[in-house]
Amino acid sequence: MSPKVSALIGGLAGALEITAAYPIEFTKVIMQLYSKYNKLGAMNVMKHTIKSDGFFGLYRGYNLLLMASIPKAYVRFGIYEYLKQNWFTESNMLNTTICGAVAGAVEGLVIHTPVENMKVKLIHDRFQRQPQYRNMFHGIYSIAKDKGFKGISSGGLITMFKEGSNHAIRFPLFLGLQKMFNPYFNNNVARDLVTGSMTGILCVMLNQPLDVLKTNIQGLNSHKYNGALDCGRQIVRKEGFFGLYKGVRPRMARVAIEVSVTFASYNLIKGAVLNYLGVSD
């Protein structure tokens, strides 16, 4: 299958994933930005949001991520397949890891950095005493006007590193677990959902601190930090080492959904397209 077709299928899979997982993403960001909400726990944060703003309060900023989910997955799967087919053609774990790392780093720089800056600021604003942004479009306009290029590029390096490490782990781990569990499943979708969930949970355990640093650097209080290392030092000094693991439970749930739904739907759609075209993978 060509990288372009793989990218299109990945984009559709990404849209399905963000729709399923966004309320947990919203909860995770709030817990990472506010220590008091982190202490409440994910369920209480969700209850508080629903009580204040109704169920769709959990989807604040969703439109932005939905619009970004298609190009995000398009870039990830397109670059991954291109590298596999043209540069790292031998099938082994090292090549899979390199392809995943490069695809994730490019995705992080080109897509995640501007989108995550907007998303985090919009969610952060929602919990201010006097929110500034009336809606997503007003928020994007105000951030671009007031903060300029820095408003959409903060934390670019750590976002790139986080996404590169994410996919350097995800692709080889998912494919390895998929192969391991294949004899135990008659249904490929069920197999991919289980292996995807396991992959997502293990990824979070390995790189949660990077996500916490990214969120704080991209929030409305980013001016308090002189880069990622200073942000990490301040968090550890005020909250201890486990301050770097704020929001870890909802992120585990969110990433488990993300990886399982993305890979399961990607493989399902890819199989249907290949079957329609009458070709093998």
Q: Write down the secondary-structure element order.
A: HHHHHHHHHHH
Low-confidence stretches: none
- Mean pLDDT over the full residue set: 84
Separation, N- and C-terminal Cα atoms: 6 Å
Morphology: globular
What fraction, in percent, of the residue positions are helical?
over 70%
Described by strand count, sense and barrel closure, the largest sheet is: none
* Cα radius of gyration in angstroms: 19 Å
Q: Helical segment tally?
A: 11
Task: Report the sheet-strand fraction.
Answer: under 5%
- What structural class results from the helix and strand content? mainly alpha
Based on DSSP secondary structure assignment, what is the total number of beta strands? 0
Q: What would your notes on this structure say?
A:
It is a single chain. The chain is mostly helical and about 280 residues long. The chain is about 80% helix and about 0% strand. It is built from eleven helices and no strands. The chain has helices spanning about 5-35, 35-40, 40-55, 60-85, 95-125, 135-145, 150-155, 155-180, 190-220, 230-240, 250-275. The mean pLDDT is about 85.
Question: What order do the helices and strands come in, and which of them pair?
Answer:
Elements: H1 3-33, H2 35-40, H3 42-53, H4 62-86, H5 93-126, H6 136-147, H7 150-153, H8 156-181, H9 188-218, H10 228-239, H11 248-277
